[in-house]
Amino acid sequence: MVQTNTFGGIGGGEANLGYIAEFWLIDVRDVIDLAKPVLTQAGLQFPIGAVALASDAAVTHFRFGAKACTAGSDVVRSEAGIAYSVTITGSMPKPDMHLLGWLLLNARRRWLVIWRDRNGMLWLGGQPDQGLRLDWKQVTADRNALELSLTGLTTKPPIQLTATTLETMFPVGEFDYSFDYSFNS
After folding, report:
1. Interval 117-174: pLDDT, tens
2. Are the C-beta atoms of 89 and 68 separated by less than 8 Å?
3. Which residues contact 38 (CB under 8 A, 6 or more apart)?
4. CA 92, CA 99: separation in Å to the nearest integer?
């Protein structure tokens, strides 16, 4: 029996919005366990509750205005095998000293990054042993902004999460969302 796989196109007249709406940074030292992704007909996905965090873990939330944040990954081939270069970039308008202070305090950490695209899909980038690095630059030109960049080389590409909210992603634990960078200007 011949099996046919069809890829591409958008079914049923669905919209396909671009860009990242928000992301959450999790210090890899706070990750207790990360479930193995499951191969389904929808692709490689992490199950609900895939990320187990320490009870005192801090999750830092960034929200972005329209067309202000992107994510991508490239396949990197070498004699050692295949790896994935993961990059997330976002622009934070009108940066303040609170944000700059947080960046300075957390510059040397490695991060697991969960992002939600404008279609509502959640993705996970980085791994506990291969976290992404956070860099930034201040831009004052036609606008005043802080350009954030998370980059890393991992053995797995960004993988879609099946959860749709943080409550279902992290069913055990309480989170403090009081530290939130929301800039929609």
Report:
1. 998 888 999 999 999 999 999 888 877 889 999 999 999 899 888 765 566 565 554 4
2. no
3. 44, 45, 46, 47
4. 10
Average pLDDT, the chain: 81
**Tokens (6 digits) for 130:** 């291969």
User: Whole-angstrom Cα distance, residue 60 to residue 175?
Assistant: 10
Helices (H), 28-181: 97-105, 166-169
d(CA 54, CA 19): 30
Residue 182 tokens read as 């929301």
Phi and psi at 98, nearest 5°, equal -65, -45
- Looking up tokens 């055990």, which residue turns up? 172
Q: Distance from first CA to last CA of the chain, Å, rounded?
A: 56
Spell 86-118 as b/e; 16+ CB within 10 A means b.
Answer: bebbbbbeebeeebeeebeeeeebbbbbbbbbb
Q: How far is CA 109 from each of CA 71, 105, 150, rounded to the nearest angstrom?
A: 20, 9, 11
pTM: 0.80
Q: Count, in order, helices (H) and strands (E) of the chain.
A: 2, 14
